[in-house]
Amino acid sequence: MARVLGASTYKGRKGITASVNGVFWLQKVASRPDGLTVFANLTERAKKDIDDIQVALEPDLIYPLLRGQDVQRWSATPSAHILVTHLPDAGLKAIPESRMAVEWPKTYAYLRYFEELLRQSGIYRRYFKAGDPFYSVFNVGEYTFAPYKVVFREIAREMTCAVIAQLAERPVVPDHKLVLCPFADANEAHFVCGMLNSSPARFVVNSYSIETQFSTHVFDYVRLLQYIRTNPTHRALADLSQQAHAATAAGEAARVREIEAEVDRLAAKLWGLTDAELREIQESLAELG
């Protein structure tokens, strides 16, 4: 396993942490001819009493939201939306209130309705100063807006890696229950996803993870090779990941198992594992599962 263990050239990130999910998480209701979109805030899992509201908002700051429940191995399908009050190049500095009020007045009025609740949230009080915009959120940066991301659930029985691509030219934003790794290139994302979903990687992660909890440290323990576009094995592994995503979406379980066997073979080859070593890892992983 020493061949699989080691630091990766890739870096994991936490998904976005909104101060109050019931304010920032939204469900689309309808599009309006004036360019605004009607949304309802999602409050079904809120820890505090939050008013249910339907409101017309400017769509500019709203993105597809990927939650932990939306991700399985080889599958990631957003089921809601999220209001992101930070721009891609501004990191943890939220859009100033003066600019928000002028450029996105409907959005600003919606946030003002919940201002007291947002200011009292633990996230805001812990990570931001009183002078920061009251709608600031945490774990947001340029990586949040990457067109492609490898994601996996932070809480799960085993590694559940998948690739999520932008939808209708809008980046998909993972929530705080997901770990992500950002990419500009789809093939590179699928290569990394294939490596992480292979039996050797999953066996390493299962051997050190605490019960069912995974984190960004996966990238510190699994020696993921840097993707090389001209390497035929790297390209083949990326293609297999794309095939696995398509087969999973089609419900073709037998085909997924065939693809995963080939993923294991190519990943083992890249890590320098023999066929016998791979079989031992697969058997050990089956016993753990």
Distance between the termini: 18 Å
Number of helices: 11
Mean of pLDDT: 93
Biggest β-sheet: count, sense, barrel?
6 strands, mixed
Low-confidence stretches are: none
Radius of gyration: 21 Å
The spatial strand order of the largest sheet comes to: 4-3-2-8-5-11
Shape: elongated
Helix percent reads: 25-40%
Written description of the protein model:
The protein is of the alpha+beta class and 289 residues long. It has 2 domains: 18-127, no CATH class; 142-288, no CATH class. It is 37% helix and 17% strand. It contains 11 helices and 12 strands. It has helices at residues 21-24, 97-103, 105-113, 115-119, 122-127, 186-197, 199-208, 218-221, 232-249, 253-271, 275-288; strands at residues 13-14, 25-31, 37-41, 54-57, 62-66, 71-72, 75-76, 80-83, 148-153, 162-165, 173-174, 178-183. Strands 4-3-2-8-5-11 form a 6-stranded mixed sheet. A 4-stranded antiparallel sheet has the order 1-12-9-10, covered by helices on one side. It has a two-stranded antiparallel sheet with strand order 6-7. A hairpin with a 2-residue loop joins strand 6 (71-72) and strand 7. The longest helix is centred in the C-terminal third of the chain and has 19 residues, at 253-271. The model has no long low-confidence stretch (mean pLDDT 93).
Outline:
With 289 residues, this protein is α+β, with helices and mostly antiparallel strands. It has helices at 21-24, 97-103, 105-113, 115-119, 122-127, 186-197, 199-208, 218-221, 232-249, 253-271, 275-288; strands at residues 13-14, 25-31, 37-41, 54-57, 62-66, 71-72, 75-76, 80-83, 148-153, 162-165, 173-174, 178-183. It is elongated and about 65 Å long.
